[in-house]
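Hi W.,

Here's what went into the run:
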Amino acid sequence: MSHDVEKHSHSLLPSDPELKVKALETALVKRGLIDPAALDEIIDTYQNKIGPKNGAKIIAKALLDKNFKKALIDDPMQILEKHGFLGRQGEHVKVVENTPKIHNIVVCTLCSCYPWPLLGIPPTWYKSDEYRSRVVREPRKCLSEFGVTLPKNTKVRVWDSTAEIRYLVLPILPDKYKDFDEEQLIEIISRDAMIGTALIGSSS
Amino acid sequence: MSRVHDMGGRFGDGKVQPGSITDKTFKEEWHARALAVTLASGSLRQWNLDMSRHSRECLPPKDYCAFSYYDKWISALANLLVNKGVISADEFLNPILKTHPLSSRKLLAADVAGVLSRGAPTSRSVEDSPKFLVGQRVKTRRADNKFISGGHTRLPKYVERSEGKIEICHGAHVFPDTHAHNLGEQPEHLYTVSFLASELWESPENPGDTLCVDIWESYMEPANVP
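Here's what came out:
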């Protein structure tokens, strides 16, 4: 069986992407296929309700409580369900723990798969050709572009999200934050630390 | 055979621009609109996630490279809508005020929260037990769709015909190579396979680094044990 002849109707739309979206939205609304109020609701969800604070809440607990951490690594879905962090692009989640020996980094080389319910919509750099093409081949060089240098004997493990499993990095808590409580930890656990392109307390 | 989206390991791209933590979720208003129109159109159930990924991959390489992220989304959505017969391309420029037979499936604002929090799990139960065990050595096949020439596959080129080790068995998941082409879910066992950087790259940054890639059972075979 051969591939369907590829039809590229998109070339008939205005080339300005803003007008392109508008044209498509108008055509679909007129046919009763989409509801502008539903679009507003989707945008509000990802702009205001779902973001990296969700992931930080889970990671903060794991950094404070060894039993919670073990449960999160062994059976994350049960914990995420309890916290109300299930959903689209987070149906199957795995948490990978950084140690002095292994530093984990997450990418999707084929598109832009990302744990939406825990981190929200991916940042532009995560979806960029530069990150997708290079982080699998030269992860340390990419990390240096984020201002991160790893100890020489730390091995890098890059997770390419090619299926529907979404990966969240459990970063190392530096000693200087050992007395922080949960609320304080949530503030310092950055989105990029949970992707693996930052460390807790590093700039990004 | 390759497609432009499969860029892992490619040479020539510049530095990553990390941006700032204060960057907005959606840089432009139309980005948010493009995402929302795409998600809402999915509720019409005329395609699945693998089909929409494949539609983005099928953009002509010159467009794929030139378009911004959400421009790829909206252009691929336009192609899906026309190729699946939902609307005609003429309607892009001359919208018709006429209720569509699929309008009863329209996503309503009140249902958005439920739809987004439910998601669409891809795990399935199958009778076959996994063919590979954790720790086993495996070798991947060529990164091509076996059913459709030029079809969708989730085996990246940079790990094709390479030897790795089974790290995790995830149970069976919907198989994208068939699911993207109306050939059914055909669930297969899915594994995380680790590859040493030295197996994949001629000049690895650090030979002991590893790549972990999620790989379906039929993408690989047992490696020859020396």
